[in-house]
Amino acid sequence: MTAELRGARGDDLAAIDALIRAEHLPAFRTGEFLDTFWVVEREDRLVGCVGLEVYGEAALLRSVITSPELRGQGYGDVLVGRAFDEARKRGVKRLYLFTMDKAPFFARHGFERCTMDDFEPTARQCTQYSILAEHPEVAEVLTAMRREV
Q1: Three-state SS sequence of 14-40
Q2: Residue % of the chain over a pLDDT of 90
Q3: CA pair distance 30, 63, nearest whole angstrom
Q4: Burial per residue of 68-107, b for 16 or more beta-carbon CB atoms within 10 angstroms, e otherwise
Q5: What CATH number was assigned to the domain covering residues 4-148?
Q6: Nearest to 60 by CA among 135, 149, 141, 140
Q7: Which are the contacts of 43, defined by CB distance < 8 A and separation ≥ 6?
Q8: Rounded to 10 degrees, what is the CA torsion of 114, 119, 124, 128?
Q9: Which of 44, 76, 126, 128 is the most exposed place for a label (fewest CB within 10 A)?
Q10: CA Rg, the chain, in Å?
Q11: What is the rounded distance in angstroms from the CA atom of residue 16 to the CA atom of residue 116?
Q12: Confidence band, pLDDT 50/70/90 cuts, at residue 115
């Protein structure tokens, strides 16, 4: 069975948000950044996604998700690679992210742990940062990471 990696479309929004929520992650403002979301489609079903929120030379990598039945097959690596390519194309120099328990996966892709204080001012514009700054008790259970592009 083949899977197709493609840019997200408007009619994918509900399925993307469902993938995100199924992982107990927040589906913040997905529709606003749909032009920098990609999906993996297999058998007419979305089975993976990744998104970027670009803020000049900084961007937030978000919503890297592969359906549980497809994990370990390299789809996550393909999604992250696609996001890196787009970040470079858009002139992004640094990528940031928050993760609950996937720090080892992201470390394999060159991300290093950081603190919220390490986020540059433009990266602090993302909704996730704003919410976590207001709720430090939630931020304490997440790992912030960054990488040069």
Answers
A1: HHHHHHHHHCCCCCCCHHHHHHHEEEE
A2: 89
A3: 9
A4: eebeeeebbebbbebbbebbeeeebebbbbbbeebbeebe
A5: 3.40.630.30
A6: 149
A7: 1
A8: -10
A9: 44
A10: 14
A11: 26
A12: very high
Which of 140, 139, 143 is CA-nearest to residue 130? 139
Are the C-beta atoms of 34 and 10 separated by less than 8 Å? yes
Q: State yes or no: pLDDT of 1 exceeds 80.
A: no
Residue with the bigger pLDDT between 25 and 147: it is 147
Q: Residue 38: which of 106, 94, 86, 96 has the closest Cα?
A: 86
Token output for 13: 């929004």
Q: Choose among 117, 123, 115: nearest CA to 149.
A: 123
Question: How far apart, in whole angstroms, are the C-alpha atoms of residue 56 and residue 90?
Answer: 8
